[in-house]
Amino acid sequence: MPMFEKILIANRGEIACRVIKTARKMGIKTVAIYSDADKQALHVQMADEAVHIGPPPANQSYIVIDKVMEAIRATGAQAVHPGYGFLSENSKFAEALAAEGVAFVGPPVGAIEKMGDKITSKKIAKEAGVSTVPGHMGLIEDADEAVKISREIGYPVMLKASAGGGGKGMRIAWDDEEAREGFQSSKNEAASSFGDDRIFIEKFVTQPRHIEIQVLCDAHGNGIYLGERECSIQRRQQKVVEEAPSPFLDEATRKAMGEQAVALAQAVDYASAGTVEFIVDGDKNFYFLEMNTRLQVEHPVTELITGVDLVEQMIRVANGEPLTISQDDVQLNGWAIENRLYAEDPYRGFLPSIGRLTRYRPPAELSGGPLLDNGKWQGDAPAGAGIAVRNDTGVYEGGEISMYYDPMIAKLCTWAPTRDQAIEAMRNALDGFEVEGIGHNLPFLSAVMDHPIFIEGAMTTAFIEEQYPEGFVGVDLPEEALRRIAASAAAMHRVAEIRRTRVSGRMDNHERRVGSDWVVTLQGQNFPVSIEADQLGATVTFQDGAAMRIASDWTPGDQLATIDVDGTPLVLKVGKISGGFRIRSRGADIKVHVRTKRQAELAELMPEKVAPDTSKLLLCPMPGLVVKIDVEVGDEVQEGQALCSVEAMKMENILRAERKGVIAKINASAGDSLAVDEVIMEFEG
């Protein structure tokens, strides 16, 4: 049957770019839609056509069905791919497309209605004999009822938006007060993100792993599963790191979960790519959570270990074609890891960051991994040279990160034959990823890749909460890593000094000589070193006699240095500071000073700069909109008490008192737009 000639992508950002790439590969023309905020966006530039659909807020543009339908009519698109989020699981949108005779690149309306609504999907799963987490399936009217139900289930409980996804409209409550607060915040987030404020409650299973199964079904009764994805490293129920396969599952559990996922999909006549999510306990007991009737954010790791282009398969199924892949064709080859790069500041409690990307240089993409030819498996040998690096993104250098949409910048993925190799490839890729102009979580992702629990594969969904209870404050590197950086910095400093001696216009009798003895200071430690250079590099010798061989083509001004240290690569982000460098590597952000022995002695006598005292101020931690102020001037507040709510990037954040105190002054009110560090309120001394 003839393939679609033109597809409209009812989305934005990286997923719109991702769909455009596959459509282009298939010879299909693409139509992008965009809001005022996305006029210069990458997906608009990549598409063959682009249609403007309204103001920046999603509820005035991307999720307004009538506006999307107008764009479809204006361009003559024959099919629509909804991506994830927005209208991807909206049955009314699928119905509107069907009425217009336009194909929906997703499941049938009935499957969306049954599985897309989390309350209905749990009932169907229960009726089908699938083990589910204890909870209240009915809708909840008000906060009092939420507290009553939470007590009956037993704390802790999870309050979830029925139409939710992506961590929006979700809260964990450990007591009555949190249940009451969480119910209202979840309702508000659900209403603004999905236009549906229905909430349900279920038991929060402690120490769980979040493992999901990718299914693929057609309209001819065929259904397969393409292995699992481990998604346990989450923050605020939003996934941060994913991998495939899971380091926890065995083949028997994988098969049982996969077969159950396919049976559940076929019970609702599912036809498209979809994901069945499970909670798995330490004994490998698994419990159905929900089914996402769309393409998942983390689908690339499945593509990398199976060789199947899921977007292409979705388009073919929507075109009425039967699957050409059987379950026997699906083999899991190697290991893939995905890190989500977010516009959020890990040093400020991961709060959203907006602004212009003054520098955006992802690592070079490398092809590799499994290969399928026309949907048929072509053996176990990878099609690349050992590793693959893939970066799915929707931004570019000079582009702006908006406050109106999800803060994800990119999805960085690596593939290698083994998990250890995939992790090492990811470490190097993160070190080589240059992002400037906004706060971002690259340092945190690097820290996770080096964390012993992650390396062992022993993480649960409580990983971030347990390992970073006070938030992320950066990384202290071990001495061996510091020595490698110290030796590299000394060699780089010598190169920079030599350049400075060659400045033109100097007087003949003022020639400057570059010494060989230096003191490198970093992370509170001093490393006296001596350097012997030759045409191939430099040998850096420490005071204890240990020596390192340094080779690099770095030149002063380069912001990325790839250095060979004793035969092992070291990737450093390099910035210039007075008397040395700002070095970022493996999650650490370090000031490195390279001085002569006398300069180092004098530096020890310099006073330290003390940060200003902001303990009596409540500062806005991110650019955002004040939703409400919960206190008044003169109120005495207790530690942990809610002071106000600030909304940014579709998330409502409750700011709480850090200690007992009295409100002296309130500088903001509901509806105010605030910048980072703007003073919201002041406390009495």
Structure commentary:
With 685 residues, the protein is α+β, with helices and mostly antiparallel strands. The strands form ten sheets. The chain has an eight-stranded antiparallel β-sheet with strand order 14-13-10-11-12-15-24-22. Strands 26-27-28-29-30-31-32-33 form an eight-stranded antiparallel beta barrel. The model is unreliable at 371-384 (pLDDT under 50). It is globular. Helices cover 27% and strands 33% of the residues. The chain contains 17 helices and 41 strands.
Major sheet, described briefly?
A: 8 strands, antiparallel
Number of helices: 17
β content, as a range? Answer: 25-35%
Give the low-pLDDT segments.
371-384
Radius of gyration from CA coordinates: 27 Å
Structure classification: alpha+beta
What is the residue-mean pLDDT, rounded to a whole number? 90
Question: Quick one: how many beta strands?
Answer: 41
Distance between the termini: 76 Å
* Proportion in helices: 25-40%
Morphology: globular
Strand order of the largest sheet: 14-13-10-11-12-15-24-22
Task: Offer a quick outline of the entry.
With 685 residues, this protein is of the alpha+beta class.
Itemize the secondary structure elements and their pairings.
Elements: E1 6-9, H1 13-25, E2 29-35, H2 42-46, E3 49-54, H3 65-75, E4 79-81, H4 91-100, E5 103-104, H5 109-116, H6 118-127, E6 135-136, H7 143-153, E7 157-165, E8 168-173, H8 176-194, E9 199-203, E10 209-217, E11 223-235, E12 238-244, H9 251-267, E13 272-280, E14 286-292, H10 299-306, H11 310-318, E15 335-342, E16 344-345, E17 351-352, E18 355-356, E19 359-361, E20 372-373, E21 376-377, E22 388-393, E23 400-401, E24 408-416, H12 419-431, E25 434-436, H13 442-449, H14 452-456, H15 463-467, H16 479-501, E26 517-522, E27 525-534, E28 537-542, E29 547-552, E30 560-565, E31 568-577, E32 580-585, E33 588-595, H17 597-603, E34 617-619, E35 624-629, E36 636-637, E37 642-648, E38 651-656, E39 661-666, E40 673-674, E41 679-683
Parallel strand pairs: 1-2, 1-4, 2-3, 4-5
Antiparallel strand pairs: 6-9, 7-8, 7-9, 10-11, 10-13, 11-12, 12-15, 13-14, 15-24, 16-17, 18-23, 19-25, 20-21, 22-24, 26-27, 26-33, 27-28, 28-29, 29-30, 30-31, 31-32, 32-33, 34-41, 35-37, 35-40, 36-39, 37-38, 39-41
